[in-house]
Every structure is written in C-alpha cells, then in structure tokens.
Write a structure and sequence with these properties.
single chain, alpha+beta, Nuclear Transport Factor 2, Chain: A
Length: about 120
C-alpha cells in the first residue's frame, strides 16, 4: 500500500477505535487498536513517571460512566510512516481536558496497532 494510503488507514483506525473509545468512554473500542503489549507512559501530578499496561488502561473506561453530551475533538499533527512502523501525534480535547498523545504504531498482519503511547494533559 502506498504511504498516503497507510496514513489514511492509520487516521481511520485512530478515529474509529481510539477517538470513539474516548467519546463513548468504552474500553471495548481499544481492543481493536491497542496491541496486547501496549503501554502508556505519563507524568503524574508530582512529575513522576507512571506507566500502565493495556488491561489497566482499559479499566479506566466504563461505558456506564458515559456522558453523551461531551463532544471530543481529535486533531492530527502528523503521521510519519516508514514501511510497517509509524509515529503519530494528536490532540484529543473536550471542554474539560486537553490531551497531547504520541503513538508508536506497527502494522502487524495487515492491521495498524498502537504499541506505545506517551501522553500529557491539562485540565481546563
């Protein structure tokens, strides 16, 4: 697949699974984009490095806690693809919080998977 088609496929996967997982506050969406070896790295309120694996991250999202009236916006700053790997930077935002996420992704068996994420956020 040419690179521009790979960029399109990555953006579509992020919107369909990662963005919608946030919109619906539903961990089940992440099953389709977070690789089983996936991890998030972030700094807590004290500036200390924290990590979480896929299972822990998914436990933070429960559709029962879903508020249907909170719009989410996702902006892509870049998607950089080389063969079967990619680096992505996005802004994911609501009226209450703004995230900047960096993803490392790999195309495995024809599917783009997030394998690593670093993130920062600010409450509004």
């Amino acid at each position: 697949m040419p690179q521009n088609q790979e960029v399109k496929a990555i953006k579509e996967a992020i919107m369909k699974y990662y963005h919608e997982g946030h919109v619906k506050h539903d961990y089940r969406y992440y099953e389709n984009i977070l690789h089983d070896e996936w991890k998030i790295f972030y700094l807590d309120d004290k500036g200390e490095l924290q990590t979480a694996d896929k299972k822990t991250y998914m436990s933070w999202y429960d559709p029962k806690d879903f508020s249907k009236n909170i719009p989410w916006e996702t902006e892509f700053f870049y998607v950089d693809v080389t063969d079967n790997i990619a680096s992505v930077k996005i802004r994911l935002e609501t009226e209450k919080v703004r995230y900047i996420d960096y993803f490392n992704m790999m195309k495995i068996d024809g599917t783009w998977w997030m394998v690593h994420k670093i993130s920062t956020w600010k409450k509004k």
